[in-house]
Amino acid sequence: MTGSVIDLNADLGEGFGRWTLTDDEALLSVVTSANVACGFHAGDPATMRRVCALAAERGVRIGAQVSYRDLAGFGRRAMDVPPDELADEVAYQIGALQVFARAAGSRVSYVKPHGALYNRVVADSEQAEAVVAGVLRAGAVCDGPLPVLGLPGSKLLAVAEGVGLPAVTEAFADRAYTWAGTLVPRRDADAVVHDPETVIARAVGMARDGLVTAIGGEPVAVDARSLCVHGDTPGATQLAWRVRGALASAGIRVEAFT
């Protein structure tokens, strides 16, 4: 639903051991929902615990960002995982994050796939069904059905709706779009929008007008309840603040969708 209210989310906890990628503490002062890496593409127990504690302290909703098991490739490499195995791995990641969310006095509030898995379940029904099966398996430890965050028109959201899970549409302020409303693949040089002014203008346009300019220059309709600003880009926190300020100036209230 595009309109006067939108959620602002970012991918957080994307470190491992002594290596850090995102400025989690700073971004948690801006966003309303945190997609927390669950250890398969990034993240480790200590990072997950720390991010959950900070999110709970600031009233930010905690989401499980589930991925293919691909630490070396940051979850961005295409993989063929049998559906039952993928469902188990999705449930495992959600359950692991729920431990730390509960310890912080909060809970896992939604699920969002990451990287190659996110793109795969746009059109692959079998993999989408596996992700949803994993979300359902984790429901027993998550106080019932979890909303699923994904691309409008994706197989993932269709499957989620088909089994009664809340399906939440998402748009990306800093990613390039194709004419079909899908994301330009990361392997392409122009997949990420780097100019801050362009990112801000796109964010407002998607939230207020339901439109974004595709890579070929044509307007594309987007219907999003949540807007993502990636946390692993240079200057991500400052950009997120500017996006939030621009949304407020356009009369759009930023609040969590859960």
UniProtKB/TrEMBL annotation:
Gene3D superfamilies: Glycoside hydrolase/deacetylase. The gene is pxpA. It comes from Kitasatospora kifunensis (Streptomyces kifunensis). Its EC number is 3.5.2.9. Keywords: ATP-binding, Hydrolase, Nucleotide-binding. Catalyzes the cleavage of 5-oxoproline to form L-glutamate coupled to the hydrolysis of ATP to ADP and inorganic phosphate. Pfam families: LamB_YcsF. InterPro entries: Glyco_hydro/deAcase_b/a-brl, LamB/YcsF/PxpA-like. It comes from the Bacteria. The keyword Nucleotide-binding applies. Belongs to the LamB/PxpA family. This is 5-oxoprolinase subunit A. GO terms for molecular function: 5-oxoprolinase (ATP-hydrolyzing) activity; ATP binding. One of its GO terms (biological process) is carbohydrate metabolic process. Forms a complex composed of PxpA, PxpB and PxpC. It is an enzyme of class 3 (hydrolase). The lineage of its organism: Bacteria, Bacillati, Actinomycetota, Actinomycetes, Kitasatosporales. It catalyses: 5-oxo-L-proline + ATP + 2 H2O = L-glutamate + ADP + phosphate + H(+).
